[in-house]
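Entry 12.
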Amino acid sequence: MNDVYLLDTNAAVKLLNSDPVVTKLIGEADEIYVPIIVVGELYYGAEHSGRVAENLKKVDEFAVRYDVLFCDLQSAREYGRIMQQLRIKGRTIRQNDVWIAAIAMQHSLTVLSQDAHFNDVDGLAVQGW
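Predicted 3D structure (tokens):
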């Protein structure tokens, strides 16, 4: 199959909420990774929610279930390349999403996301649902 995904935040949220389509995609995947940026966004969402303690626990459990990828020097290099490529195109995407794209490019992973702006990153594999 060779479906190796890096989860964007919207995919992670769908997975946390047991969305059947995303759960099926994840269940059929060979490998799943989560960038530390997404984990941070999930913690922010939990802190901002009406059920902080319950949602923090869900994020804690989620974060240990999947391999979390961190930023390093190579990620920073990819980030810089992507930002320049987007600047030349006259396109902008959120900084956190550039970091997610950089980690995906670094590790040759497909970003699982519904965000169309990932398609502006040359060479980035993106899968929606």
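Annotation: Helices lie at 9-16, 20-28, 36-47, 52-65, 73-89, 95-107. Residues 10 and 17 are 11 Å apart (CA to CA).
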